[in-house]
Each structure stands twice: as structure tokens, then as C-alpha cells.
Amino acid sequence: xxxxxxxxxxxxxxxxxxxxxxxxxxxxxxxxxxxxxxxxxxxxxxxxxxxxxxxxxxxxxxxxxxxxxxxxxxxxxxxxxxxxxxxxxxxxxxxxxxxxxxxxxxxxxxxxxxxxxxxxxxxxxxxxxxxxxxxxxxxxxxxxxxxxxxxxxxxxxxxxxxxxxxxxxxxxxxxxxxxxxxxxxxxxxxxxxxxxxxxxxxxxxxxxxxxxxxxxxxxxxxxxxxxxxxxxxxxxxxxxxxxxxxxxxxxxxxxxxxxxxxxxxxxx
Length: 268
What we know:
By secondary structure, this protein is of the alpha/beta class. Helix content is about 40%, strand content about 15%. The chain has helices spanning about 30-35, 50-60, 90-95, 100-105, 115-120, 125-130, 145-160, 180-185, 205-210, 245-265, and strands at about 5-10, 40-45, 65-70, 75, 105-110, 140, 160-165, 170-175, 195-200, 215, 235-240.
């Protein structure tokens, strides 16, 4: 990793943020170290631009782009949520073309009240309102049988929709994922860059595999990520601690190791 700058890409819920409390307090030492060393932090989440923009500012990384709505959209550096735009109405229209007996089994955020979102996520009222402010994708819950779900996904694909299963919700969009957005961001970097990606859910796998170093954060709240090929050669590692605590330990270890190597090279 000598001589190359680092860029961190991270999932939020269950990774940088605690799955239950949504707190990043346990990760503050590593976050502060990133700021001190001027290492970029790209938030990559199912969250909306309206949710991510204030969090990005609070963490001190407004100068970095952010990947929103599971990679269906991108929030440019310093861009405010209201400046982004997407195809949300077209996604609703595509879902509504699906057979009624299947469509009726899926309840998306557009059909949920703020109270419903609060009950399902534990978010505050303000945060739940921001979560409903969608532009690029429609998350929700499928209530039917596994057979109906398979039929629903097939019909959605036929309508041009892409489905992704996250830690809590099944989400539909017209495409784009965290890995694609990460690669687009890396392609714009002026200097040679080492990408480090952290995630806890199946929708993070592509990003973890595409990064130079992937870190799987354990999350007991859902099925763990299956064994990935990159684990056989050390390209992907598994944290021992969950959530922001595991995030903090692993990011600090990588950052300090990289910093020590750079310092040694400079002395030479």
C-alpha cells in the first residue's frame, strides 16, 4: 500500500451505525483519525440523500461524494439533498404494472405512513420523514410466500426493475449499485488510490469484492454474509466485533498500518 492514498467506502446501518441505536459513537476514534490524515470517507447506504447529506456534514466529510439508495443515486461533494433528482415516479409506475395478486403483497415506503416507518426501523419521526424522501429507489417489505416472492421478482425484472435485498428491506430501482458507484468515484481520483470497503449485508457484497480491501462487519440481526472468494487470499477479512466497534478497530488498524509504511518510506 506504499505511496498510495486511501479512500474508505462504508455502509451505514449495522456497519458504521449501530443496527439498533443508529449511533456511530464507538467509531469516533477512527473517524477522527481519518480527518487528521485527510483520508476520504464515502458513505454508501440504502439511506436517502435527505438522510445522508446531514450525516455526511456531521461527520465532517461533506467534501466527499456519497452513494445513496443502495447505489441507485450519487450525492456529489457539497451537494444538498434537494439538488439531487431521480426516477422515483417511474419506479412506482413500473411496480404498479405488476400483477395485482403479487403487487398487493409488497408494501413500499410510498405506501407507508411516517408512523409505519418509525415502527419498522426505530428511527425518530424526523429521520423517518427523511427516509421517505426518496428519489432513486423504493424499499419495502414483501408479505407473501417464498414462491410468490420469486414470481414477484421475476415480474419486476420483466418491468425493467432491479431488486436488492438489504438488512431490512427489499428495494427496487432501475439499476446502479454500490460497487458501480464506487468504481466511478475511484476513476475520478487524481492520485492512485487504495479502496477499502466495509459492509454487513448481502447488498454490500459487490462493493466488498470490488474494493482493494473488503471488511465484513458481523450483524447478528440478519443472516451473515456467505463465504466470499476474496477471504481465501486475505483481500476480504471479517471483523470480530459488530457495528461501529468493529468498524473502528479495523479502520484504525488499516489506517495506522498504512501511515507507518508511508512514514518509513519517507525516511528512506
